[in-house]
């Protein structure tokens, strides 16, 4: 009789233990944030501007706008931004197709994203450049998710003493940043889009911070610099800055 009572008691204890485990995993356990594929929004392409170097080359010699010089007058540039409207970060790649006036494809390739990771509800600049392709009348840009990139974007920085200085034949944007987060920012870079008076992007500058990896609470410095003609310097009216690393 006593043995039966003990067996019954053990069964009751086991049953209660099983119920506790089931309840915990159903209602109390922490769940990892999952993306709802049905509600994912596409990455938005914003503020694009394109031009042939030869279209601006004649203003002065030998430089006109940043990357356009005597040896690159046949280059075609597209500048712009990608915006991530989702609540989670996205790792992406950007591709382009170029068309002539008859809508015939005359070029294609992969654009440049200095960091492929776009934080949620934020933007990142991109650049597309081609050489020896004449007659470009239109283009198509496609953004695809990069399934092989598992890096996480890091932007927990405080900007310190950021300033832009125009000199006789160049522009400098410099300053310091402080890591105000709780993670080490690796491969930290600074990007700046330059705008003219019409709000169009006319160049993209990029440089690594010194040091490249920034510990929590530490600071790093940077200087973005590019050479321009006087005419092109006068075109630069404002800039927009991005600071990003990975962890």
Describe this structure in words.
With 247 residues, the chain is α+β, with helices and mostly antiparallel strands. The protein folds into two domains: 37-145, Immunoglobulins (Immunoglobulin-like, Sandwich); 153-246, Immunoglobulin-like. It contains three helices and 14 strands. Strands 3, 4, 5 and 7 form a four-stranded antiparallel β-sheet that branches. A hairpin with a 3-residue loop joins strand 9 and strand 10. Residues 29-38 have low confidence and may be disordered.
- Beta strand %: 35-45%
Number of helical regions? 3
CATH structural class of the largest domain: Mainly Beta
Number of structural domains = 2
- What would you call the shape? flat
Radius of gyration: 26 Å
Kindly name the structural category: alpha+beta
What's the total number of strands? 14
How much helix is in the residues? 10-25%
Element order, helices and strands? Answer: HEHEEEEEEEEEEEEHE
Biggest β-sheet: count, sense, barrel? 4 strands, antiparallel
* CATH-level-2 architecture of the largest domain: Sandwich
CATH-defined fold name of the largest domain: Immunoglobulin-like
What is the residue-mean pLDDT, rounded to a whole number?
84
Task: Enumerate the spans where pLDDT stays under 50 for 5 or more consecutive residues.
Answer: 29-38
The CATH homology group name of the largest domain: Immunoglobulins
